[in-house]
Design goal:
Blueprint: E1 5-10, E2 13-20, E3 28-29, E4 57-60, E5 65-68, E6 71-72, H1 73-79, H2 82-91, H3 97-109, H4 116-122, H5 130-144, H6 153-179, H7 192-201, H8 209-221, H9 229-238, H10 244-256, H11 263-274, H12 280-288, H13 309-325, H14 331-345, H15 347-351, H16 358-369, H17 376-397
Antiparallel strand pairs: 1-2, 2-3, 4-5, 5-6
Helix pairs in contact: 2-8, 2-17, 3-6, 4-5, 4-6, 5-6, 5-10, 6-7, 6-17, 7-8, 8-13, 8-16, 8-17, 9-10, 9-17, 10-17, 11-14, 11-16, 13-16
Bound molecules: acetyl coenzyme *A.
Acetyl coenzyme *A (ACO) is lined by residues 259-261, 263, 287, 290, 295-302, 352, 354, 357-359.
């Protein structure tokens, strides 16, 4: 803390509001004192409001920087795998080789979720969205693992590792139920990404290191992104000391929307709708028309007003996967690359700093690998589970943590009689 204050003049009285420094990023004005003076702040969408303190992830949207525990995302993508990044997010430091092996062994020991998962899936009609199933699976697991001593750090650690271990099967089995296909049981001795590919495709995709690496990268790049909508939802649910599986259900619900995790799925739907390169100008014109609510899916970001650093890594992975699979001739990929080029040159997008985001490329990669569109957002959830759990754990460890209870600006009628 420094001794600077912001002076706020309210109705003739001057309030001294402490200014605190972050490691990086804007200074913060602490406004708790305001409520004692019958004033709230109003900040729709939390554009200027920090909801918590966190040491996990730092984003500078103007400069296109993303750090996890201080490490740049491109270095993590190049030099670690998903579980190593997960360990870092959860524990604050990269593991040494003993810690890394132990962590991987523990996660692998939880690869088989309890039978209640299959029972719960049976309650869903074929064709139901896997995200809806994942929400219910978390509810079922909350019922199965209850009560949990949230204040007990060892019990929290166990819950976190267990859920990370369960996730590949939960996602793969939800999809298999969605298409009415039999599920595959996990195999021993596979990496996290290999296990997931195997649970999805059995032996049908072979053990292709380029595709496994691409999945692992997608998981690393989606693992955490500070206080986004789904993470904030997990923290808010967790602030009531709710069961962590129930908190994950809340996070998955928030992630599902097309303005957040649903964007990678929406990208492919949009590219299919465009259908042919000759239709691109029509769609660009619609995106620019203020009377049309159509937006180019996979472009723009609430925080990044520069190239999303994850999108840079993803684009490189996208090139590797397309050349490995010889898929450059898929008309959808041609449309995607053409759209990217036009949007990057168009004044409308340049002035508003609307760059392709991580989901623009992840949608293309997942489609090229043969992963069905309905699984795109569940794969995002698979990765983000680590970030949600790291943030939830950090919140539980924070002595200052209180139940999250935002205030409101009441605009309804004054009291009246019936
Ligand atoms: N296509 C066309 N115009 C856009 C787009 C887009 N994708 N995104 C923003 N704009 C325009 C808006 O119309 C607005 O224009 P105006 O100033 O003329 O009114 C301006 O850019 C600013 O838009 P906001 O909605 O204020 O930007 P915000 O930061 O709130 O929105 C969001 C960010 C929701 C991601 C938005 O860019 C969007 O809807 N993108 C498409 C969906 C998408 O790809 N989401 C994935 C995000 S990444 C993730 O969750 C991992």
């Amino acid at each position: 803390m420094n001794d600077k204050v912001a002076k706020l003049n309210i109705e003739g009285e001057t309030l001294d509001l402490p200014i605190v420094n972050a490691t990086y990023g804007p200074h913060l004005v602490e406004i708790e004192a305001l409520s004692k003076h019958e004033f709230f702040t109003y900040d729709p969408g939390f554009i200027s409001t920090a909801s918590c303190r966190s040491a996990i992830t730092y984003i500078n949207g103007e400069k296109g920087i993303l750090l996890h525990r201080g490490y740049p995302i491109d270095q993590l993508a190049a030099k670690t795998d998903f579980l190593t990044t997960a360990y870092l997010l959860l524990n604050g430091e990269l593991p040494n080789s003993t810690e890394q092996n132990e962590f991987k062994t523990i996660i692998a020991s939880h690869v088989n979720p309890p039978a209640i998962v299959h029972d719960t899936l049976q309650g869903f009609a074929k064709g139901a969205h896997p995200m809806a199933m994942l929400i219910s699976l978390m509810g079922a697991l909350a019922g199965y693992f209850h009560p949990i001593k949230i204040r007990d750090a060892a019990e929290r650690k166990h819950m976190i590792e267990q859920l990370i271990g369960f996730m590949p099967a939960l996602v793969a089995w939800s999809y298999q139920h969605h298409i009415g296909q039999k599920t595959y049981s996990p195999r021993a001795g596979l990496s996290y990404a290999e296990q997931f590919m195997y649970l999805l495709f059995d032996d049908k995709r072979g053990n292709n290191p380029i595709l496994n690496k691409a999945i692992d990268r997608i998981l690393i790049l989606h693992a955490d992104h500070e206080q986004n909508a789904s993470t904030s939802t997990v923290r808010l649910a967790g602030s009531t000391l709710a069961n962590p599986y129930a908190c994950m259900a809340a996070g998955i619900a928030a992630l599902w929307g097309p303005a957040h995790g649903g964007a990678n799925e929406a990208v492919i739907k949009m590219l299919s709708e465009i259908e042919d390169e000759k239709n691109i100008p029509k769609f660009i014109a619609r995106a620019k028309d203020s009377n049309d609510n159509f937006r180019l899916m996979g472009f723009g970001h609430r925080v990044y007003k520069n190239y999303d650093p994850r999108a840079k890594v993803m684009k490189q992975t996208c090139d590797e996967v397309l050349s490995e699979l010889g898929e450059q001739h898929d008309p959808l990929f041609k449309i995607a690359l053409q759209l990217e080029r036009i949007a990057l040159e168009d004044d409308y997008f340049i002035q508003r700093k609307l760059y392709p985001n991580v989901d623009f490329y992840s949608g293309i990669i997942l489609r090229a690998i043969g992963i069905p569109t309905e699984l795109f957002t569940p794969i995002f959830a698979l990765a983000r589970t680590v970030g949600w759990l790291a943030q939830w754990g950090e919140m539980c460890d924070d002595n200052d943590f209180k139940i999250g209870r935002p205030r409101q600006w009441y605009t309804g009628p004054k009291v009246r009689d019936i």
